[in-house]
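Methods — Computational structure assignment.
A single polypeptide chain was analysed. Its primary sequence is given first, followed by the predicted tertiary structure written as structure tokens.
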Amino acid sequence: VAAGAFRLVFVFLAARHYDQAEETARTAAEALQPMANGGDPQAMSLWGGLTLQRAVVAARIGDPDTAYGQLERAKQMAGRLGEGRNDYNTEFGPANVGLQEVAIAVDLGDAGRALRAAAAVDTTGLSAERQARLLIEMARAHAQRRQADEAVNTLLRAEEITPELVRGHVLVRQLVADLLTMQTPPSAELHDLARRLTAKTGIGT
């Protein structure tokens, strides 16, 4: 049931139904708490994943205290697990908590914290998709600092790992559009990336 709630929260997040996302994640996490506290690794992974989702919700609605508080709770649980796991496709563990810290900091406009957190993430245990997501968030952080060259180079690294994900990602399309106005003149690498995104989506940049 908790695994079903975990998947449902992603639907609510995509639809920006943040109240429903928080209520679903909170209810499932509270139900799992006794098992997680008792050391059941599957319950710990799911509880951690749900707690990260609660941190994301708080960041999306601009509540940094709650976002970082939930993030710290998830970090402590990941420390107890001591390794990355993929129970119920959560990919929960220290590395994924680090990835989410980067994304949360970017959502809150804290580019400095995002880049510091990214530098500390050990990506060796992450899937290619999660590694690319980390690089996309790093590129967003560089853009927030108006470091256009660094943002473009980071996006190109992500594209090398998972071209289809990067070229079809709505955040990447928005970021590239922003970078085209930020770089004067836009670099050849950025123009080429924009063309690849256009070819993928059929939408002009």
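Note: Residues 18-37 form the longest helix (20 residues).
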